[in-house]
Design brief:
Pfam families: GAF_2, GGDEF, HisKA_7TM, PAS_9
Helix content: 40-55%
Largest sheet: 7 strands, antiparallel
CATH superfamily of the largest domain: Rhodopsin 7-helix transmembrane proteins
Number of domains: 5
CATH architecture of the largest domain: Up-down Bundle
GO molecular function: diguanylate cyclase activity
CATH topology of the largest domain: Rhopdopsin 7-helix transmembrane proteins
Organism: Pelolinea submarina
Protein name: Diguanylate cyclase (GGDEF)-like protein
Keywords: Membrane, Transmembrane, Transmembrane helix
Number of strands: 25
């Protein structure tokens, strides 16, 4: 074959070369989705362009036909490769793996038609060599050519549509790349349409491969300049953009090359508006814990505190990235916000430390009567639960002189030798004088803004924040625990109760020391005192403390009847814990200490020990007629001791004996000592029960919280499944509750929630468990209850609430609300608690959609 290549054949050479370069560059990144079909696609362009060189230069019809057939290798394969590329690049599922080859059927037939056209002429009816300057052959197309064109255009259109649709969710950089790719395809597509329709001025000249030069150059530049295919497809973008965890990607030079919105929200950097393309060391302060961890570790995972105000913790992990040749190409930093979890852990840790510190101090109080040792231990344990710079204990001595008997932390300020030498009048120190007068703790967050704050005390000029608590015993202020800080607003008001607890323990220690000196003559009694104190402080539940107290006291004193009355000042009642000599408990009370006369009320009003040698005596201090008597008992000797912590009245401990003058002075003194220790043990037991209650109850409504409900409900489900018992679950939500808060305010909203809870409790059985699941959502677990009975209970709740109203002082009138309820039942042994909650929630949603104020039942398919 002879050839005479026209000048425009050089364009085909350039197109072939750049197509080959782009294919090679893309193949190097073939692990990324879309790269393999795109690389082969570029080889198809190369094949088409290369064959076009020789087709244009061939001087004979046989030569042009020969190279036209080779052109069809690229022409036939390009549309399906374009569709495969678009599918992989956008994450579109194109058929199944085993059926993808179906899109190649028509291209393969087309290729066979091209190489066998002499036998059927379905692709080309005729080829006419035109005698013109460029030696262009005119191809008269047959019917199969139009089948091929329609099919090819369809594949090109579908692939292009998928890419354009992906522009809505692609990142900005990838959008630029896709626009360039699609623009190139549209140019080639337009060129081919002009050729097929015969609209190009030069008859028979196929400008499609001529356009490949522009397309190949653009794609090569796009691959090199914009690093086409270095970024993962749309699935990755959607995943990264919507991840809850923050993700930040660094290159080997620590430049930020990608960051998702979650990371921006978690890190809250302020130095640069957009961190992309900047070094991480320029984005964050050099003191940032993130940079510190990166500088000192390789791949790792750790917890970081990103800020103190507001408190923010993250779980921070770093992983290195390597390419296929194991070359280091960057790092991935992942941030998971754990602030809520850490706050809960910190709160729980503080509660544990407080309980341990209290127990440790109580143990020291009970193990020694050395006042200095006890006070030193108190300061040590205060430091475990209340942060401070310095601490001291000051005692009031004769003539209201104040002396600082124990100190800690003053070495930092060089005043460790000055403070213990200070002796001054109580009236000279305003904050101490105020506590002595009121009996209440003192909290001064910023001493610089307090005109009454005295700086005349040596070594106190550095103090910027102060908190103190009075040490009160038997109604008298013995001294103070003082905490200081060199930073304004250092202390929090929530620390005050903790400090007061230790002040109360110091009061007990001081009283113990004083009483010890009074009863030192009786070593045996002190031994008993120690044994009693040790055992009652080991008990954490209230009934256990009282029973232990009774068991020990009856060893040293005659007791026919023992009673500890626990006072509820809010409700004005006293609850009796009463035992007979034979340890049988008597049920009596509760009684009112406001309306009803009683010995308990009398002791509380006097606020000191009351001993009645013979209640039958007409001259008795307390009349026999006002004594609340236990059934079958008519005791004569009565000893009552108020249980107090500081000025707080806890209750009354009373001993009753059937004979007159049953108690000696020494016994009374011993019982009084034990009663003072019992006060703190009972208070600790009450605090422990309160802490336990707070751990499982919702603080606003008083019903169980979600954490306890999950634990209880899961056990009940296991029990029901084991014994084939019925069980149902109700989910309740207040309709339009936000309107109540918006119209009446959150305080009325809280009262509305309480009204809902009280209404539910009035309808439900004692065995049913009510839980506050969310803001205005509640769950009710109904053990041994069928779905039909649960629906009846739910309807009763729904109707009763709809009839309730909450009076308000607002012009808007009373609050009335309705509820929507979803009901489901435990059906199989595979059902979990989460399954029941999801089903009840689905039924609740149906109730909401159906108009609210109704009950819907979950229907399983």
């Amino acid at each position: 074959m002879r050839y005479d290549f026209p000048d425009f054949a050089l364009v085909y050479v350039i197109a072939s070369l750049f197509s080959l370069i782009t294919a090679a560059m893309t193949w190097r990144r073939r692990s990324n989705p879309g790269n393999v079909p795109f690389s082969i696609l570029m080889l198809s362009l190369c094949t088409w362009s290369f064959a076009s060189i020789f087709e244009a230069g061939a001087l004979s019809l046989e030569g042009k036909l020969f190279w036209s057939k080779w052109q069809y290798i690229g022409i036939a394969s390009l549309p399906p490769l374009w569709l495969l590329f678009a599918a992989e690049f956008t994450g579109h599922k194109l058929f199944k793996e085993k059926t993808r080859w179906l899109i190649l059927i028509i291209p393969i037939i087309t290729l066979l038609m091209a190489f066998t056209n002499e036998h059927h002429h379905l692709l080309w009816l005729d080829i006419i060599l035109q005698p013109n300057l460029f030696n262009i052959a005119l191809y008269i197309h047959g019917p199969w050519f139009y089948v091929h064109i329609i099919y090819s255009y369809l594949l090109l259109f579908i692939g292009t549509f998928w890419l354009l649709k992906g522009l809505l969710v692609f990142s900005r950089q990838k959008r630029k790349q896709i626009v360039i790719i699609v623009s190139g395809v549209i140019i080639g597509w337009t060129s081919n349409i002009l050729y097929v329709l015969g609209l190009f001025p030069v008859t028979g000249l196929d400008i499609t491969p001529l356009s490949f030069t522009f397309i190949a150059i653009v794609l090569s530049w796009n691959t090199f300049q914009f690093r086409l295919f270095d970024i993962l497809p749309i699935a990755r973008d959607l995943l990264l953009e919507n991840m809850v965890d923050g993700v930040l990607v660094l290159d080997p030079q620590d430049t930020i090359i990608d960051i998702n919105p979650a990371a921006l929200a978690i890190l809250k950097h302020k130095k640069i508006h957009s961190p992309m393309g900047h070094s991480i060391r320029n984005v964050f302060d050099h003191e940032s814990p993130i940079l510190h961890e990166l500088d000192n570790k390789n791949d790792f995972q750790s917890e970081l505190c990103l800020s103190e105000k507001p408190l923010q913790y993250v779980n921070f992990s770093v992983s290195s990235i390597y390419d296929q040749s194991h070359n280091f190409i960057g790092k991935v930093l992942i941030f998971h916000d754990i602030t809520k979890r850490k706050l809960i852990e910190i709160k729980e840790q503080e509660q544990r430390e407080l309980a341990e510190a209290l127990a440790d101090t109580a143990a020291v109080i009970n193990s020694t009567l050395n006042l200095d040792e006890v006070l030193e231990n108190i300061l040590t344990n205060v430091g475990r639960v209340v942060p401070h710079d310095t601490a001291n204990i000051a005692l009031i001595e004769i003539n209201d002189m104040v002396r600082f008997v124990r100190t800690r932390g003053y070495e930092k300020y060089g005043t460790q030798d000055i403070v213990p030498q200070i002796k001054c009048k109580l009236s000279d120190i305003p904050n101490l004088k105020k506590m002595a007068e009121t009996g209440q703790p003192c909290f001064n967050p910023d001493t610089d803004n307090d005109p009454e704050w005295s700086r005349d005390i040596p070594g106190s000029s550095w103090i910027k924040s102060y908190m103190g608590a009075p040490i009160i015993g038997k109604g008298r202020v013995h001294g103070f625990i003082n905490l200081d800080a060199g930073t304004p607003n250092f202390f929090k008001e929530e620390y005050i109760p903790r400090l007061q607890v230790f002040a109360n323990q110091a009061a007990v220690a001081i009283q113990n020391a004083q009483l010890f000196s009074e009863v030192a003559k009786s070593a045996e009694e002190m031994k008993i005192l120690y044994e009693v104190s040790s055992e009652i402080t080991e008990r954490l539940n209230l009934e256990g403390v009282i029973k232990t107290l009774f068991d020990k006291l009856k060893i040293v004193t005659p007791i026919d009847l023992f009673n500890v009355a626990i006072l509820n000042e809010t409700e004005g009642i006293a609850t009796f814990h009463m035992y007979q000599e034979n340890e049988e408990q008597i049920a009596l009370g509760p009684i009112s200490v406001v309306d009803q006369p009683s010995f308990t009320r009398y002791v509380l009003e006097k606020g000191k020990l009351v001993y009645i040698p013979d209640s039958f005596d007409d001259n008795s201090e307390f009349p026999q007629m006002n004594i609340v008597k236990a059934p079958g008992h008519n005791e004569r000797s009565i000893l009552g001791i108020p249980l107090m912590l500081g000025k707080e009245k806890i209750g009354v401990l009373s001993l009753w004996a059937g004979r007159p003058n049953a108690y000696s002075d020494d016994q009374i003194r011993l019982v009084e000592t034990i009663a003072h220790q019992a006060s703190i043990s009972i208070s600790n037991a009450q605090m422990f029960e309160k802490i336990q209650s707070m751990a499982i109850l919702d603080t606003l409504t008083g019903v169980y919280n979600r954490r306890y409900f999950y634990e209880y409900a899961e056990n009940e489900i296991i029990r029901s499944q084991r014994y084939n018992n019925e069980m149902s679950l109700i989910m309740l939500d207040i309709d339009h509750f936000k309107l109540v808060n918006d119209r009446f305010g959150h305080l009325i909203g809280d009262e509305t929630l309480k009204m809902i809870v009280n209404t539910c409790l009035s309808v439900l059985r004692k065995s049913d468990v009510l839980c506050r699941f969310g803001g205005e959502e509640f769950l009710v677990l109904l053990p041994e209850t069928s779905q039909q009975d649960a629906v009846i209970a739910a309807q009763r709740i729904c109707q009763t609430i709809a009839q309730q109203s909450l009076p308000t002082n607002s012009d808007l009138g009373p609050v009335t609300v309705t509820v929507s309820i979803g009901v489901t039942q435990l059906k199989s042994k595979e059902d979990s608690l989460q399954d029941l909650i999801d089903e009840a929630d689905h039924a609740l949603y149906e109730a909401k959609q159906s108009g609210r104020n109704r009950v819907c039942v979950f229907q399983r398919k």
